[in-house]
Structures are given as C-alpha cells and as structure tokens.
Structure prediction request, 442 residues.
Amino acid sequence: MYPTLSLGPFVFPTAGIAYLLGIWLSLTLIERAAKRLHLNVEAVYGVAVTGLLVGFVAARLLFVMEYWAAFQENLLGIIWPLTSGYNVAAGVFFGAAGAFFYGRYKQLPFWSTLDALAPGLLGALITISLADFLAGPGYGKLTTMPWGVSVFGIRRHPIQLYEIAIGLLALLLWRQATELHVHDPQAAARRTFPGQAFLLTAVLYSTGRLFVETFRDNAWLTANGYHVVQVISLLALLGSLVLLARFSMMQPSLPTAENL
Amino acid sequence: MLRNKYEWAIWIVVAALLGVGWIFLSKEDVRKAQTLTLTEAPIVGHLAPDFTLPNTFGETYTLSNYRGQPVVLNFWASWCGPCRVEMPFFERTQMKFNGRVTILGVNQGEPVATIRDFGARQDIGYPLLVDENNDVNLRYTINSLPTTIFVDADGVVREVVVGVVTQAVLEDRLESLLAETP
Prediction:
C-alpha cells in the first residue's frame, strides 16, 4: 500500500526499513526482557543474534545449493540481491538449532531463556505484518466496516493491522505475566514457573491468529481450502496449553484458589 | 493459574473444539475466484491491468489479446539470481503446454540490449518484454523480484507468487487453470 517513502530526492523501500527497524526492535526487547527476568543479558542477546545470523545464512545457502546450476554462472547473485531467494524452512530450522546450541554452550536455562526471547519473537512477527501492510502482497477480505482500508479502490479488512494488534496485546500480556519478577523476584520464583510468560503469550498470539486469519483474502490454503496458518495456530495453541498444564501442576508452591 | 488436571483438560478440549470448529467455518471454496470484473488491480479476484509492451525485436504484446487462455506474467531482471533460477522452469513449461498457455517475461527497467543478450545467452524462447520506464512494473506494484502472476482465461488474476516458482507449482497451477478453461 505504501511501498516507498520519499525524502527529498531519495526514495526508500518501506518494507526494507521496517525489517531493519524490526531487527533492532526485537533485539532491544530481548535485551530488556533478559534484564527484567534477571538473566545473563549478554548470553541471551547472543542467543538471539546467533539464531538470526545462522537462520539468515542457512536460508540463503540452502536455496543456493538447491538451485546451484542457476547461480554458478553468476556467483555475485549469491549475495545480491537479497530481497528474495530463501529456503524459509531451512532458515527457521537451522536458526532455532543455532540458538539452542549457543544457549546450551552458555548454560542458559531453556524455559527462562524462552521467556526472555518471547518479546523479541513477537517484535519480529509484528514487523513481518507491518512490512506486509506497507509493501507486501497480503490483503484482507471485502468489508463495509468503517475501519476497512482501501486497496486499489476497494475497502478491505486491514488484516495485517489485526495481526499487529494481537502482537501488541501479547506483549502487554507478557509484561503483566513478568511483573512479579520486577517487584519481588523471590515471590516470582515461588509463584510462577520458567516458561510461563512464553507459553501465555503463545496461547494469546496463536488464538488471535487463528481467529483473524479468516479475514485474509489471499490466504495460504490446503488443497481442500483450509487455512494453513489456522492449522499451525491451533497446534501451537494446544501445545502451549498442554505445556502450561503440565508445568503448573508440577510446581508445588503455586497458589491455589483457596490460599490466594 | 488452574491447578486441577480436570480443569485443564476441560479447557484444552474446549479450545480444541472451538479451534477446529472455527477452522471448518473459515474453509474457503478453492474453485471460486472472487471475480470483481469491473475493476483492474494486480491482486487476486480482479481483472489483470491491461498493458501493451514490446519484446526485444519491437513486436508488441497486449495482455488482453490473450483472453481465452491462461497467462503467466513473470516479472524479472537479469541481475536477479532467483529470477535466473526459475527461468528454465518457465521455458520447459512453455514447451510442455505448447500453445495452450502464454508466458510473458516482463523485465524490470533494463535496456533492450541487456534483455536481448540475456535471453540469447539463457536460450529463452518465450517473449521477454521491455519495460524500460517501469510503467507496467509500477502498475502491478512489483516490489520484489521475481514475482509471478497467474491470470485465468477470463483475464482475472488468480494467484500472485512473490519469490521463486518451482516447476511443480507452475505445472500444477496451469493444469488447474486449463481444466477451468472452456
């Protein structure tokens, strides 16, 4: 909708700017979250940067290897342009693996580290939605609602803005869920469990995406017409609920309704 | 936080049922294109914006002349690595569906000589169109290369793919579009 930003004689691609700002935002959120949760800030920051770099390089290299015949004539094409040509699945897999092993190397507690990474992951998801809104191919279904946005003269659901709103709500929930860590770390250790903030935000975000995906017009569908993002969201929601149940029942000193 | 395992079980089952129900309610009719035939826009369900562009030999191609058969618009540039990846797929597809579909490679902002040399070197047989001022690229809001747009026999945009299209995806989409073509 707004693919470029003109400043005097210069024209900048808004999606590229959004991604750069998103990386900065995500890393800043992770740094602050690690401080808030009294974790090793440098090590947690290292986990995020490792995941980002390994994921980026792996996604590109796997793509180049897959289509080597097309790149061997033009080796410069491997490093430029970088706007497309990634094996996303490989990037996610190797990025997560890189982050995991870096965390192990730094002896970071797994679930507490995920609690600290949650705001950064949300920041990244918000950025993807923002870039899609500004210059991406996504758009919502037709609507007569007053908050609809005009896409080529036709009013449509601002699907990416819905996704951003869910991300912001999940960030607020994360903040609320970690409030005790700021004011009373000892009470937080007794009354919450590692992974709680991450899982709660995962429940809220996946529920939201499950709901709003219905309003996307150019959705990724299965052969039968089901929304793939909804299926992934439901699996994430149920997985998070099961883990929340398991961890909360394992935590002996959690308050019950009787002694609250 | 809930403590009782039965309370948790109830919540998880309720979430699963509501989620599955919502997914069923949201199911799309994959055969139906939302045809808004009055407006031209480079997005699914709208008429593909019409254009006339020359190839590297000066012959002109007009999109609306191809009504009656599926058309694939591939936006590309010679400096774009991923574009080079997929161009052999388009070439093979053009040969496989000989005469039943049209593939048009719309270049982004390069001079005729560059496109002609590139086409000869890569042995590209389908038309490579020259859009030196990017007029058509701008009309189709091409922000990322490669971008491929599938247009059905009625001239309606059916799918926009940003990034590389594989041979399998190309053939699958074209067979679907051909099956609908009278």
Remarks:
- Chain A touches chain B through 57 residues (CB under 8 Å).
